[in-house]
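Inputs:
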Amino acid sequence: MNLVTNNKWIGQRTIRPDGMDKVTGRAQFAADTTMPGMIWGKVLRSPHPHARIRSINTAKAEALPGVKAVVTSKDIVDFPIEKGAVMLGIQDMRWMCRNVMARDKALFPGHPVAAVAATTEAIAAEACKLIEVDYEVLPWSIEIDDAIKSDAPILHEFNKFDGKPSNIAGRLEHKKGDIADGFKKADVVIERTFTTRPVHQGYIEPHACLISVAPDGKTTIWSSSQGQFMVRAMTSMLTGIPQSDIRAIPAEIGGGFGGKTIVYLEPLATLLAKKSGRPVKMVMTREEVMRATGPTSGSKSTVKIGATKDGKIVAAHGTFYLQAGAFPGSPIRGAAGCSFTPYDIPNLLSEGFDVCSNRSKVAAYRAPGAPIGAYAVECVMDEVAERLKMDPLDFRLKNAAREGTKAAHGPVFPRIGYVETVEAARSSPHYAAPLGDGQGKLRGRGTASGFWFNAGGESSAQVNITEDGNVVVTTGHPDIGGSRAGIANICAELLGIDYRRVSVIIGDTQTVGFSNLTGGSRVLFASSMVVTQSTEKIIQTLRERAAKIWEIDPEAVKWEDGAAHPVSPNAGQFEPLTLQQLAEKAPAMGGPIGAGVQLNTQGADGGFGTHVCDVEIDVDLGIARVIRYTAVQDVGRAIHPGYVEGQLQGGVAQGIGWALNEEYIYTKEGKVDNPGFLDYRMPVCSDLPMLDCILVEIPNPKHPQGVKGVGEVPLVPVMAAVANAIYNALGKRFYALPMSPPKVLEVLEAPTREAAE
Amino acid sequence: MAKVHVTTTINGEPMEFLCEPSDTMLDALRGTLNLTGSKEGCASGDCGACSITLDDRLVCSCLMLAVESEGHEIRTIEGMAQGDRLHPLQQKFLEMAALQCGICTSGMLVASDALLKKNPDPSEEEVRFWLAGNLCRCTGYDKIVRAVMETAAEMRAQ
């Protein structure tokens, strides 16, 4: 371990490098870009949840004045199903090519069937209406229970489960010990079934791109995504244009939360641009975002936990069914792999089932799957603790995973900070404070914990010293929550200069080396590794340059406070050489100073959090409000505490929305009935209290600054913390999300019922 | 249909432009006028990312027709800083990490400025209800509310 201590910039709340552009309206998001000769693309989408496409006639649309190009699935590279998986990261291109444009079947309302480019948006929209699609409408299913019935309409006939055509596209399990034996030893066993609704990532910026294809095939993409390299690779695979000919420029991204880790518009706009010879801009409406992108899975989970009288968990079994949407690939790994991980459970079986149904293909959403699983597990943990008459945090501590615990998904934990998060929650001012008088409203407090894997992976950086002795850092992961601020702090710290002398930018695909997409809470972990190694190379060069000037051994030169110094008076008496001076002398002393490093980064330890939530319930209106919230998390090292807190607060706010209001509502016809921000009710400013954070810092020993991923853990415990608080207030448990006013009222008005369904 | 000629004032400067009768003010700002600081998140008046002021009244520019700006005074995020001098709210948002992705930031700042002009000493509850029409999905609002209140306190002290 090589931790930097006595920090000047690491841990400071510096001004983010991209901040000025964002507070003045200068920042260029994807929809803010234009090009000379630009035309507009629009997508024609299926109105049906499930329909065979017999034919598509685009003749009338193509004849409309102003229309420059029309594309259908015939124009998209096909990845035939029978040829087997073609993976790009976690995405199978067989599904991706069918998701961006329906081939033989439309599988959800909103599924693209054709796209048009025209001189104005209005003409493009008009042309879409002129496209004739002959559909054979098929029976459909959306809810998990409907999709797994034996006579359910099958989305993909090729898919077999237990030897029969099925909508269950996959199963995974994590296993430890023998649960049958384990449950025999239990004094208390509680088993419950929970459901959650699909919820959208809810980024405020709709998907957008502007794409130009020159006659020689050279393609430039400006788009909003969580990975310019993902955009380049997927667009290349779906259009046949080689990656070397595609320059994908990452626009500022207006929120993603996982939802921008796949492409929707880019391949279509590329093909339209290629056909028309004009740059094509495409921007989704909010309704398109809600119908055809994301959301995460709806779910049905059953969790059984058994413990002895003295509070030791002896066995647990979780079964997690998650909606994949139209194509296989729901986040069962997160649900089955993360939910029990805070605990050392000798006998465990955690199973995930991937269920296709006629709604949009799921996209990642902040710790994909983990919040869904944790909601079920942490609610049952609360019930078991109550049955044992134990404080819920004491119960968690008694069973906490520690260094040396073997997690069911594989790893033996190194030094982890889970216990510290529980202890910090237990000794927090919040946990000690009385709930206070709700003046007629009922108050309650709940707690819950959560885990997320975190990720490392490929990362590239180039650090260059400018001719005037300042620094430009280029990295390859789109900055979604302040990573540039963290990178500036680290680079300035290592070089011993003011952070304002470090400019951090996100490079495009042709100017920086491959970097995996912004996801898995990898960005600051991975990019600070490559930036640190690049900066260390530069410092080595600077020492060598000073040694050359002083005519001493490079080993006799140290780098401190932004300048080269002799290590001791024995090495010689020289005035320090600053970064500026060495930059000025660079042409004569060996040339430009810069270094790049590319790594497949390893050692991203998982992250743990423990949350405390107070609610207040208006029993007349059924409105549950969160009135106080504290999120505790082991963050490894808070490089920029402001943006670390921001991750915690943002995750908590999303979880409160998921718990209390957000849900996809479907019509009888299988269409989303609330595809806008008025009816899909995300938390607004007046819905929330201040969101307190306690940052526990147990440095990651495998990282030069001790960094652990922080972005995803904060969503994992929230729904359970809110649900447990509501139980504490009402004495009644909810086993379904969201706990929205009509559902709360229903329970309040049915006092004899044990719980709401 | 023929385009309509509109004469208005934007960020203190006289401005003329042509628009379709159906164009929203947001279309005109982001299109013809090339002022892309105002963002479109929903086009239904629910997210507030397109917030501007019309004669000092806070409006969603996606809910206003461009032709309605005729003879009125529009202010957008681009008019908030005076040259290289940031408005105190802009400075405070930077210092207090009151933004993450930045897509809501223009609207948040315009709305917060409108609040402080009306009410220089807002309570936390007043800030929260005033900003309830501006969605932010990244921050959980905590740092935004704190930044607005701290700016208000500093502006009152001056």
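Chain B touches chain A through 56 residues (CB under 8 Å). Flag for discussion at group meeting.
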